[in-house]
Write a structure and sequence with these properties.
Layout: E1 2-3, E2 15-22, H1 26-37, E3 42-46, H2 72-86, E4 89-92, E5 95-100, H3 108-111, E6 116-120, E7 124-132, E8 136-138, H4 146-149, E9 154-155, H5 158-161, E10 169-173, H6 177-186, E11 192-196, H7 206-213, E12 218-221, E13 224-231, E14 235-242, E15 248-252, E16 255-258, E17 262-264, E18 294-296, H8 308-327
Parallel strand pairs: 1-4, 2-3, 2-7, 3-4, 7-18, 9-16, 10-11, 10-16, 11-12
Antiparallel strand pairs: 5-6, 6-7, 8-17, 13-14, 14-15
Length: 330
């Protein structure tokens, strides 16, 4: 994987590819491998590295193609090797915008009637087709001081930060699979793990709930919401509002781990393709967006269940549709 230097202007692209895949999570890595394998000159772009959300997961038990659990970071590296072996080019760059472009803006012989310009921080790139696999990020609680304490006690990755909370007190917010899986990781390190969720019962799968309830240092608080976080240099406490009693309780805490859903990373394609009311990309059965030649895969698309196996399937499907689009007569 290479970084790119220099700056791009507002003119035409510096280089043209058959397919540019934006986002190197499971969907993007799978799509890049498939389009490259299909003979398309493919570039995979990501601003940080490979793996996406899965890179923060300590053990992935349902990774497609793997019989044994694998660390999320290692899964990203494995999929990167597959993509590069297939011939995909990979680069680190921040994608700022994706624009539709006619042949005059790129190259009529290459684009043959249309295409896209991907404007990144380091350069502008042309593509005959694009796969949007920008994924999503964890939603924040929206509390005063939350942004300032991010990385100073507030986290979204137990496997990354759990060891820093050895013998300390942490609060986990969320009632789904992610919250309970990550709380179980934290229970291996922290002295006290409190899981706060809004419903009367968690929505996490039964085995995850049972495993956490078996830990003596873990407990749950249903029908409750974290309404405030306090701390100067680091998180020191949170306020929890009880829905059933109306009470507000101050809870001492050294860490706050938030798992309340995902926010799609659709900013670079705002105005290019149709989005649903949640900001996800609207796609058809072939994962084509409202704009011909643009496809979406993984957590960023509408109707996603945000499951690992689905992201891998999405990558394959979007790649197949992109290759079909490239081969169609214009």
């Amino acid at each position: 994987m290479s970084g790119e230097g220099g700056a791009s202007g507002a003119g035409g692209p510096d280089e043209v590819f058959d397919v540019i895949v934006v986002g190197a999570g499971v969907a993007g890595l799978t799509a890049a491998a498939a389009t490259a394998r299909g003979g398309a000159r493919t570039l995979l772009l990501d601003r940080l590295g490979v793996g996406g959300q899965v890179s923060t997961v300590e053990n992935v038990a349902n990774a497609p193609g793997f019989d044994e659990p694998i660390a999320g970071y290692d899964l990203g590296v494995e999929l990167l090797e597959v993509a590069e072996s297939a011939g995909a080019e990979v680069a680190l760059d921040e994608v700022e915008a994706i624009e539709a472009a006619g042949p005059a803006a790129i190259d009529e012989a290459v684009v043959n009637g249309g295409g896209f310009v991907v404007r990144a921080a380091a350069r502008s790139l042309g593509a005959r087709a694009i796969v949007i696999a920008t994924g999503s990020t964890r939603r924040a609680l929206g509390l005063v001081g939350e942004a300032e304490l991010e990385g100073r006690g507030i986290s979204h990755c137990a496997s990354c930060d759990g060891p820093f909370f050895r013998e300390r007190r942490v609060v986990v917010v969320g009632g789904g699979d992610s919250a309970y899986d990550e709380a179980l990781v934290l229970a291996e390190h922290a002295a006290d793990v409190l899981v706060v969720h809004t419903g009367p019962e968690p929505t996490a799968r039964a085995t995850a709930v049972e495993n956490l309830r078996a830990r003596p240092n873990a407990r749950e608080l249903p029908n409750a919401t974290v309404t405030a976080v306090r701390g100067t240099e680091r998180v020191e406490s949170v306020t929890i509002s009880r829905h059933d009693t109306g009470q507000e309780v101050d809870q001492a805490a050294d860490g706050l781990f938030v798992y309340i859903g995902l926010q799609p990373n659709s900013r670079p394609i705002a105005g290019l393709v149709d989005l649903d009311r949640d900001g996800r990309v609207v796609v058809d059965a072939g994962l084509q967006t409202s704009r011909q030649g643009a496809f979406a895969a993984g957590d960023v698309r509408s109707g996603t269940a945000a499951m690992l196996a689905e992201s891998a399937t999405d990558g394959e499907s979007a790649a197949a549709s992109a290759l079909e689009f490239l081969r169609a007569p214009r």
